[in-house]
């Protein structure tokens, strides 16, 4: 399972079913090909998930009378799998694709002219002539028999079965879950690299990697020179005592970054481009350092109520509404950025490791009362439980209590993109993007 291999695109065929699939390059322990008695499966995900999938798929009853029955059989086999995964296979004349219930690894697909095409990278679908791709909904199986498609549910994000009301219990539970998640992921990584802004979420991961990784982590920061993220990350790295690697964005070459984002995510939405261009700079730096995995802090804002807009939710509907809205934010993370960021990493041959979205961490965080995350409707800091946890594990108080600044603003990407569009004579950023960039395959969410 840990052997290294390179795969850009593979076509699987058996009987009347045809499927093409791509998962990127050099994914080491996080990807494998598995041969089964009646077919072949291609898997991408955590080692634990991949092992479980191989065992589960071996128990699928292949004597199915319809593609719908086959989809249900695969879905039933995958119900017990935990962790991030994406899987595609061909078994006894049926092709199928599936991804975990949180959507931690993307699958985009197109179905045209009797060919089901699936990929973690939208642009790869263009190899078959596709121009539009759809994301596979997390927690689903999509099956194909050569003529018809059928879908079956595997599982959804489970509602919490308990509620943690006391801060001390919440801190203990969070420490156990998040510490274990980082330790497990770090065990598969030889060069721990972390996307770092100097903020709370990435600083917690930096400290945990220091505790559990075989080597001290290298922190990767990006932004335009003079940007808030670059300036603050330098200070934070000194306070925390970590090595900082800077990947500044060059204004003259900014359009190259935009083109890379558009091509590899299939997105032209201004917000997506503003967020993804700094991430691309970090991922490129990670690859230049010889990295194959990069830790990121996605999910913390959704799990611990980090967004300022949630203060209005609390004011209007109290903690009960805040809890429901937070749950939906976590459930829809795949649509709101996770697919974009992960496919961008995979396009460079990187695996994006997201400890905050470990199953146990998610379950624990959703069990913590929102009153331990946001103290009141005027609480400008928010994420109180995570801030307390940061201090508990040794994160400097100045860093732990730093206010949130979104990456598109902290890096300066939003400001530079607006100025670029105006300088080129466009009314707005969206018009500029659609007039100057066109992905090989556009993703329709």
Characterization of this structure:
There is one protein chain. This protein has 445 residues and is of the alpha/beta class. It has 2 domains: 10-153, Aminohydrolase, N-terminal nucleophile (Ntn) domain (Glutamine Phosphoribosylpyrophosphate, subunit 1, domain 1), CATH 3.60.20; 167-437, Rossmann fold (3-Layer(aba) Sandwich), CATH 3.40.50.620. 42% of the residues lie in helices and 19% in strands. The two termini are 33 Å apart.
Pick out its properties.
single chain, Glutamine Phosphoribosylpyrophosphate, subunit 1, domain 1, Rossmann fold, 2 domains, six-stranded mixed β-sheet, six-stranded antiparallel β-sheet, 17 strands, globular, disordered N terminus
Strand order of the largest sheet: 1-2-8-7-9-17
Assigned CATH architecture of the largest domain: 3-Layer(aba) Sandwich
The helix tally amounts to 16
CATH superfamily of the largest domain: HUPs
Uncertain runs are 1-31
The domain tally reads 2
**CA-based shape:** globular
Largest sheet: 6 strands, mixed
Q: Count every beta strand, where a strand is a DSSP E run of 2 or more residues.
A: 17
Distance between the termini: 33 Å
CATH class of the largest domain, anyone? Alpha Beta
Could you tell me the CATH topology label of the largest domain: Rossmann fold
Please bin the fraction of helical residues: 40-55%
Rg computed from alpha carbons, rounded to a whole number of angstroms: 22 Å
Category from helices, strands and their pairing: alpha/beta
**Mean pLDDT score:** 89
């Amino acid at each position: 399972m840990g052997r290294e291999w390179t795969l850009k695109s593979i076509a699987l065929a058996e009987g009347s079913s045809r499927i093409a699939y791509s998962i990127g390059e050099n994914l080491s322990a996080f990807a494998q090909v598995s041969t089964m008695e009646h077919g072949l499966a291609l898997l991408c995900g955590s080692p634990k998930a991949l092992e479980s999938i191989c065992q589960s798929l071996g128990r699928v009853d292949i004597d199915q009378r319809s593609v719908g029955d086959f989809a249900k059989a695969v879905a039933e086999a995958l119900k017990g799998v935990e962790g991030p995964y994406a899987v595609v296979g061909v078994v006894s004349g049926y092709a199928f694709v599936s991804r975990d219930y949180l959507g931690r690894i993307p699958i985009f697909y197109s179905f045209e002219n009797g060919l089901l095409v699936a990929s973690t990278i939208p642009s790869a679908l263009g190899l078959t002539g596709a121009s539009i791709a759809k994301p596979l909904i997390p927690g689903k199986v999509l099956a194909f028999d050569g003529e018809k498609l059928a879908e079956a549910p595997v599982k959804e994000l489970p509602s919490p079965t308990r509620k943690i009301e006391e801060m001390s219990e919440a801190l203990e539970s969070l420490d156990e879950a998040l510490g274990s998640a980082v330790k497990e992921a770090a065990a598969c990584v030889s060069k721990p690299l972390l996307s770092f802004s100097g903020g709370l979420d990435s600083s917690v991961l930096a400290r945990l990697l220091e505790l559990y990784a075989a080597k001290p982590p290298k922190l990767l920061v990006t932004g335009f020179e003079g940007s808030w993220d670059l300036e603050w990350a330098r200070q934070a790295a000194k306070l925390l005592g970590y090595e900082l690697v800077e990947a500044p964005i060059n204004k003259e070459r900014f359009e190259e970054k935009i083109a890379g984002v558009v091509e590899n995510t299939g997105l032209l939405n201004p917000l997506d481009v503003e967020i993804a261009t700094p991430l691309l700079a970090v991922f490129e730096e990670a690859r230049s350092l010889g990295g194959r995995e990069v830790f990121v802090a996605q999910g913390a804002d959704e799990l611990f109520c980090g967004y300022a807009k949630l203060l209005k939710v609390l004011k209007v509907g109290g903690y009960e509404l805040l809890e429901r809205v937070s749950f939906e934010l976590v459930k829809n993370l795949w649509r709101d950025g996770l697919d974009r960021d992960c496919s961008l990493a995979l396009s460079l041959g990187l695996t994006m490791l997201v400890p905050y979205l470990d199953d146990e961490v998610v379950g624990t965080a959703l069990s913590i009362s929102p009153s331990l995350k946001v103290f009141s409707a005027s609480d400008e800091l928010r994420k109180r439980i995570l801030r307390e946890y940061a201090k508990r594990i040794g994160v400097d108080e100045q860093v732990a209590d730093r206010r949130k600044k979104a990456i598109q603003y902290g890096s300066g990407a939003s400001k530079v993109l607006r100025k670029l569009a105006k300088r080129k004579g466009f009314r707005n950023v969206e018009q500029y993007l659609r007039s100057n960039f066109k992905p090989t395959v556009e993703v329709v969410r």
